[in-house]
Amino acid sequence: MKKITGLMSPVALAAMLLVGFATPAHAGPYWNKHVKCNATDPDGRRIPTRTGNGELGWNHFSGKHNIKKCALVDIPLGSNADKVDGSNIQYWGWASNRAHGRVKLVVKARYARKTDDGRYDAGRGSVIGVITAYCNGMQKCPDWVNE
User: Fold this and answer.
1) DSSP state letters, 53-94
2) How far is residue 18's CA from residue 73's CA, in Å, rounded to a whole number?
3) Which pLDDT band, with edges at 50, 70 and 90, does 23 fall under?
4) How far apart are CA 71 and CA 50, in angstroms?
5) pTM over 0.70, yes/no
6) Is 142 helix (H, G, I), strand (E, B) or coil?
């Protein structure tokens, strides 16, 4: 019995080295592809805002940049693209408040299945959508933009 178990360990190790580990080398970081918001720009591009993770999507900008409402992303996406670089698109808009003035909103989107670096894949027939959104010139948007 000891000889059988003694043989299994090296055989299992050799098989693992030949076949590889369970995670494929091309797998990117985990991100939630669930669509939280949707907007269509005047050119007919349907741009989703996915839940994402800490690097892109809703989870990224709602924490890091303090944008907590879909309307703050949908406002710029409802206007013409302000900057287009291949599949990378920027939209600009404004959030205003009588007591506090206004701030420029910037939404960066990727209208392609994969990110530039290939780490994230939205799947066949889908686009990445909103990468980030922020108030221009500041790390965090003021709290009043979410009112």
Assistant:
1) -SSSSHHHHHHHS----HHHHHHHHTS--SEEETTEEEEEEE
2) 48
3) very low
4) 14
5) yes
6) coil
